[in-house]
Design a protein that fits this description.
about 450 residues, alpha/beta, Rossmann fold, GMP Synthetase, Chain A, domain 3, 3 domains, five-stranded parallel β-sheet, five-stranded antiparallel β-sheet, 12 helices
Amino acid sequence: MIDLLHQPDAAIRAVQGERLRTMLALCARGHDFYRRRWAQSGIAASQVASLDDIALLPLTTKHDLMAEPEAFRLRVPDLPLEERALWEVIHTTGSTADPVPVYTTTHDYHAYLFQAQRVAAIAGITDRDVIANLFPLTPAPMGAFLRSSANAFAAGAAVVAALPGAPFGRFGIQRPLDDAVRLVERHRATLLWGVTSYVRRLLIRAAELRADFSRVRMCAVTGEASSPAMRDDIRRRMRALNAAGAIVFDRYGSTEMGGLAQCREDGDWHNPAPEILYLEAVDPDTGRAVPPGARGALAITHLDRRGTVLLRFLVGDMVSVTRDPCPHCGRGGERVVGPVVRTRDLIKVKGMLINPALLLESLSAIDGIEEFQVVVQRQDPQDTLSMDELVVRIATLSADVAALKDRAATATVTAVGVRPRVEIANQAEFHGDRAKLQRFVDAR
């Protein structure tokens, strides 16, 4: 295939427009949600002849996807087998206790490998790398964990998995932090791939254990906000370990769009595969693209997908998007320009996107809890770069405090997939001078 990233912008837009028309025609044949939405809005897919017409299509929100994920699955029976066969199902946050499935066909998996090859080329990941997958095992398959293998396959790299995370289920296969340190050392990993704060925590522990991290040359971090101070701290810790390099690749992406790539540290994020993904910054109220350089809500459109298909889907971040050739590497296509600011409907804790409303509803239903508050904070308040901690504070009159704490912890894990620290407080502590209790507090 032609490397579209090195073609003129007019050529890129022409390919994207052609792919968009094909995608819309397939949705008109077998996408329950968009067929219904277009009928309600009086829109025909044939009206969208190019990217210039894409604003005719309504925006899609996360709540649309959460409410009926099965309606977003493309169903066209006469497509070739590879475009119908289900390869895998990954999950994103839902509006109930069950996360939302995102369906991937064989065609989509191959497309992701194609995207990952481009990411590797942009970021400098090669077939000589050994990737340490530091993402946690989660109750529902998490895109970041599964896609670490796909990213390694695409680059021709080796991959090992540390299997961290809070234990659940009967098998107990999650491993502690020290095991992850020794795995990196044993396999002479060159690339640490994981949630930002966990990667930092691993480097701190590696220094304490005097582990040999001399082959590590890059940290690919994702899953939560990554400030310049955090990245500088990670680089400093890599150098203190005599690592082979101190590159921090800040991977930006989502379950729904996959990963974007930086061609240099702290740079913009390239859309690595404009053949299969289109990015816009839009006014969320009007659906219109904002002027070049202005900030808007990031909307993604799948141009060549066969499983879960999303058009003008609001990821939940405020960004700028440019199509000017990159001044550093010359690549074209869309680039996301930071800072990336996440909207507040959903937030990330320990790399997991959680629904606070769902958590509060689950805790409210527990008998015996007289009052409660959920706090997201740093584990070490004196260290602004320390890992996130989810704390559930409860007041109770129950004599069996231990059982109540267990129920609160279980309800939290079931609702949002993050294990909290549960502490008991006096009911008078919650309100103070406030007339109304603030149920959810992000104190980071």
